[in-house]
Amino acid sequence: MSVSAAKVSAKHTPRKGKKPERDGPPYKRRKLDRSPGQTSTPSLQDTSTSTFPRGQPAPNIDSELAVDFTTQETKNGESLATLRKMIFGRLEHTSTQEDPGKYLAVDCEMVGVGIDGEESSLARVSIVNYWGAVQMDEFVKQKERVVDYRTKWSGIRPSDMVRAKPFEEVQKTVAALTKDRILVGHAVHNDLKVLLLSHPGPYIRDTQHLAAKHKVTSSKRPALRNLVKQELDVVIQGGEHSSVTDARATMAVFRLHRKEWDKGFRPLPAPGASASNKRKRIESGEPDAPTPPGRGRKGVSSGLSTIVKRTPQTKTKTAVKTANSNWWTTLGASGIAAKGSMKL
Question: Which one of 22, 178, 180, 299 has the minimum C-beta count within 10 Å?
């Protein structure tokens, strides 16, 4: 055998443990022959018939289907059926119940802005009154690019931003609507923070704080969905959130405990009597009435009851002329009573 023939045979000789190479197409997987009576083993996950296919969100669960709207049960004087209907917007309101009234409940929804959408930006504000009637439901126009609409939780979509209003306009409307009214909310300090507003402490009813304070729940910071489930046997936030539904649910929880929770706050002043008399005179431009002699502020002595006796000065005193350059020579010669004398 020549050297060239030996090389060719060595080239085509397969190594031990390695499959021989083929110049043609790769091997095809052989199909298993199965008899007609045998059935194939089903796969672990069949995406065509799966209830929740991979990559697709789970459908929203209609939480109203399991709610009993016909119950006659009452709690703390409130009908549970009425409160449940209020949460889901099934109540018809009279003209009087459409007014803002004394109590207002607020809830806000956020979207994600900034890097990776981690920063929260106000996107929707909803306010309802004591009866659940919507007083305000506005979307807020974003000043930054929205990275994550958080639709799964916020329920907000890009199409909602078409009818959005500027933040300053929404903020002004909220401030005017909640002025001199009791504001109800669940962790309401978060809502006021994103609105860049403040509210007087006696005019705030935070259901999260009050529920923990009055031992309604064992948790110090109960979630709204857990509190509503415990008190009203209603499931909310099962899918996309709605700020209107959350505001109504917050008001429903507050109505159940209003009498007890209002005891720790001072009563509101009568309409028009919040400002003091002095402030009213300043705003109207009326001059202050003169204070009679002997009458000062209440509880403060005027000092007029003290009698002061003053002895009249004699006319023999001569005025010292400071214009004289040698004025010190007249100190001892004058009739002025001095404690001591000075000799030069």
Answer: 299
